[in-house]
Amino acid sequence: MAIPTLDPNAPDFTRRCLNLADPRLGAKALVASDEFFAPKERMLDPQPAVFIPGKYDDHGKWMDGWETRRKRTTGQDSCVVKLARRGTIEGVDIDTSHFTGNFPPAASIEACASTSELPPDDATWHMLVPPTALQGNQHHYLAIGGSDTFTHIRITLFPDGGVARLRIYGRPALEDALASSSGDSLVDLAAAENGAHVVCANNQHFGLASNMLMPGRGANMGDGWETRRRREPGNDWAIVALARPGVIRKIEVDTAFFKGNYPDRCSLQAANVTGGTDESLVTQAMFWPVLLPEQSLQMDNRHFYEREIAAIGAVTHVRFNIFPDGGVSRLRLWGE
């Protein structure tokens, strides 16, 4: 099993915001000026880029990303990406991992808002990242300000080369999140696609806690939150900031694919938090009111709770406790 890694040097926006370019949420690489060595879709892969020595295909060395041919004329290469949700953009990561002698010397990122699948020729593009120098085999985290919302981005390489991964971190527009509920009065307040995010988790050794907030059911045991085996007293936990304040009416805890390693029990605490820092929430959360008392769990199963939920009013954050450790595929918190 591949153990996930969290970049300790990544800025705060990578943890607080949703990757709007995640294909699991519906993002698409639409068109590229060139993709001779490696296809544009590979650049959006949610998994970290890898390097496989000795792997070649019909076009040359296999690279995990988008790579264009060596340009022998003037001009630049570009790729247009449709974001998973219309939203504000707070930061980007242009990742050139494993691209050393073939990375672009510079790149820029523009954004537009369009109702078309592919923006028309007369679309108005806004420069988010002006042409910026890149280095090989490293992340380039770039913060972006502004309150405008966008649906598409365009990355331009000067003049050519390869990008392993492109992440566009932002917050989904409120109206889009509500529309995605298909008219249901209850919205999944813990859904990443609606703007929820994991504030902190005490352990993410085998699987990231943010996986619990992704759409659909888990694809396998690696597509969930899984902690190491606990060898000391206590329990594991994760704190989730909801997409917006709401009264939680229905809860689902899904242990899909977790069989010999599912938690024995779970519970939820919750609170309406204003101000403070993420660090301060870790201490506060231990004393939050109980939203869902301890419930026994079963392996590879969906667990639904309604009558068991305590009436504590509107909340902004929850602490999800698992006893004593283990793996959970998805957490759903439907509310209004």
Automatic annotation (TrEMBL):
One GO biological process term: allantoin catabolic process
E.C. code: 3.5.3.4
Cross-referenced InterPro entries: Allantoicase (IPR005164), Allantoicase_dom (IPR015908), Galactose-bd-like_sf (IPR008979)
All copies of domain Allantoicase, residue ranges: 26-172, 195-336
UniProt pathway annotation: Nitrogen metabolism; (S)-allantoin degradation; (S)-ureidoglycolate from allantoate (aminidohydrolase route): step 1/1
Keywords per UniProt: Hydrolase, Purine metabolism
Catalytic activity: allantoate + H2O = (S)-ureidoglycolate + urea
A GO term for molecular function: allantoicase activity
Matches recorded under PANTHER family: ALLANTOICASE (PTHR12045), INACTIVE ALLANTOICASE-RELATED (PTHR12045:SF3)
HAMAP family named in the record: Allantoicase
Stored NCBIfam families: allantoicase
Family: Belongs to the allantoicase family.
Record's protein name: Probable allantoicase
Organism, as annotated: Trinickia dinghuensis
